[in-house]
Amino acid sequence: MMEPLLTLLVLLLVFTIAPSKARNITLGSLLTTEGVNTSWISPSGDFAFGFQLISTNTYLLAVWFDKTVNKSMAWYAKTNTQVPEVVLVPSGSRLQLSSNGLSLLDPGGHELWNPQVPGAAYANMLDTGNFVLLGADGSTKWGTFDSPADTILPTQGPFSEVQLYSRLTQADYSNGRFLLQVKDGNLEFDLVAVPSGNKYRSYLTPNTGGNGSQLLFNETGGVYFTLKDGTEITITSTIMGSMVNYYQRATLDPDGVFRQYVYPKKEAVTRGWKYIGWTAVDFIPRNICDVFTTSDGSGACGFNSYCSFNWNQNETVECQCPPHYSFIDEARKYKGCKANFQQQSCDLDEATMIDEFDLIPMKGIDWPSADYESFTSVGMDDCQKLCLTDCFCAVTVFNEGNCWKKKLPMSNGRMDSSVDRTLYLKVPKNNNSLSIINTGSIKWKKDKKYWILGSCLLLGSFLLVLILLISFILFGHYFAKKSKKIDPPKQSYSTGGLPLKSFTYEELHEATGGFCEEIGSGGSGVVYKGTLQDQLGTHIAVKKINKVLPDIEKEFAVEVQTIGWTFHKNLVRLLGFCNEGAKRLLVYEFMPNGPLNEFIFCTIRPSWYQRGLLYLHEECSTQIIHCDIKPQNILLDNNLTAKISDFGLAKLLQMDQTQTTTGIRGTRGYVAPEWFKNIAVTAKVDVYSFGVILLEIVCCRRNVEQDIIDEDRAILTDWANDCYRSGRIDLLVEGDEEASFDIKRVQRFLAVALWCIQEDPAMRPTMHKVTQMLDGAVEIAVPPDPASYISSLQ
């Protein structure tokens, strides 16, 4: 039933976004780098094809988003060679359309580029972003969609063979250090040498399916890899779902991360900003700093540098140099770092080496593949001496009697809180002005007069900032008092990371038909289905909050705005709110397939594929502590993609709305055991709840079944553990032919779930680790028996 509905949805979207009739570009038409005819525009004006200036007197022949502020590139011409290179176009060049296709000529008349398309009768710049050459019969002879540069667009594909080279930098369109390619039906991300383009190795190989498989960016906003049997593996996706309100693109960025972006077609005018820009809504790999493990190439960053992944800064990659090192080229950090001192001479005797060089500690940083010599059963002092007296040694590592020496150049460097050992970097003593480096922070020691001067400057700067801050607060207070008399303007409806809309109660009463169709209820309130009176007739879910803490009129609006800015493809999107008198309502995107419990606990079991892939492989959780993860709070959209609801409401509700009679946050059966103990609550409480849900998905039954005849089976977590220990996993999926046939996957999911529900929170994996375990990307050790933990406490 789902397949026809999904097909209908796609067709509706296609008809909705159907472009105006394309304007034919006739033979003999000409574009030049200067003057009036520099580009051809699509009927809607969304895309343009022509010459784009990238530096002084240098252009690209390109397709770009013509209505975005920065005219973002969607395609640019490259040579038709084994390793395609960007075509740089000098000022004064021209492009001519003839029966032989397109011919790009420099000012002297020499041909720079020609896709060789005989039989072309005319051309069109389409509203999809595809510039095409067509024959007299209307058949497409060639299009820019056939040969992407670093970006693909919705409707582009399917590709059984394709290459996307990243740019070298954002401003340098030369081939960069990363390559995404579909080859022989397999998808892989490769690290390549610059400028030769020689492939070092693959840094990511998603589990794809061989000959016959294809890459596709579909109309609903998802980049998929389709296998021969029709199975779709999600590469990236977005909750936006429509090309009507958003521009979309997926780009292999210069840092090697494949990101999917959206851009609202109607630019936001709020909070003093007119333009929100491109927003990354999904990306792969999840942390590129961690995917490089061999000595081939330099890794995510250049040699002798280290990589950190900024989750809070739009998931960006930052490359840094260690102390006493600096970038070879600040504008091209991929070239790596060089030492700012003379390297230790091998002609020095050992005593001089020790007198002139020292080792400074660095925490949270590692170059895992730079080792060239190791020792066992040595002490710290001996380990350090071994490095100080070795002219090749640049870094040493000591850990519990083991000693490793690393030499230059160092590769695959990364900085992360999970690195729990200390490295010692060798630097000259007369330049050793550093104290301990903790996850990349540097504390400089200066001599006294510079310290005094710096302190004075710092104090002066602090006072200046303080004065400005106080002035700003006073002015803001004055302005706020005046603005209280003016009703705030209503914000436009948005689902793309923009501020929320403030609805009136009357609007929501009308949208829900007087709150007549109830679709859910819980401790926080009742949820009703509604339809907005907008052009699309957007379906919504309206939650009436029953009991809100008193005297929080201001806090309510601030809190829901904060929730609205929390953006993740697996969170049910908060669209707006109503804060009118004593009425508090929240407006969410509508999830047509309802909560997960209705899906997996129904009479007819969902297929094993739907349970195993569409939910588990869509990153069901985030690092934010939800505290009430359960099937009722996991909703399914049209594509059965899981999204978490009721996120962020705990601060708005009275305490008794989120507690059971024992004072425990969450719902019985899914509550982590630390709630019952004097133990700090962390994100691992959600990992525990996820483990319980994973068992429920595999077994298609609730965690607690009170009416079951066999008492040993009443509590699913206990029974699953007993089955696992006794080697009778088949009992868990008895009567489920699909699951029984795939018993190895059941065993893997069961092992992951048992790791998640460990009594000790420290024993539970992170959600990132859980996704790797579910995908089979890492080996899964036998989970400890919870009974052994309990006995150890007695």
TrEMBL record:
InterPro entries: Bulb-type_lectin_dom, Bulb-type_lectin_dom_sf, G-type_lectin_kinases/EP1-like, Kinase-like_dom_sf, Prot_kinase_dom, Protein_kinase_ATP_BS, Ser/Thr_kinase_AS, SRK-like_kinase. Residues 1-22 form the signal peptide. Its EC number is 2.7.11.1. It is found in: Membrane. Gene3D superfamilies: 2.90.10.30, Phosphorylase Kinase, domain 1, Transferase(Phosphotransferase) domain 1. The chain crosses the membrane at residues 46-65, 450-480. SMART domains: B_lectin, S_TKc. GO terms for biological process: response to other organism. Residues 27-146 form the Bulb-type lectin domain. It catalyses: L-seryl-[protein] + ATP = O-phospho-L-seryl-[protein] + ADP + H(+); L-threonyl-[protein] + ATP = O-phospho-L-threonyl-[protein] + ADP + H(+). Residues 513-778 form the Protein kinase domain. It holds the Pfam family Pkinase. ATP binds at residue 544. The keyword ATP-binding applies. One of its GO terms (molecular function) is ATP binding. Keywords: ATP-binding, Disulfide bond, EGF-like domain, Glycoprotein, Kinase, Lectin, Membrane, Nucleotide-binding, Receptor, Serine/threonine-protein kinase, Signal, Transferase, Transmembrane, Transmembrane helix. Does not seem to be involved in resistance against the herbivorous insect brown planthopper (N.lugens, BPH). This is G-type lectin S-receptor-like serine/threonine-protein kinase LECRK4.
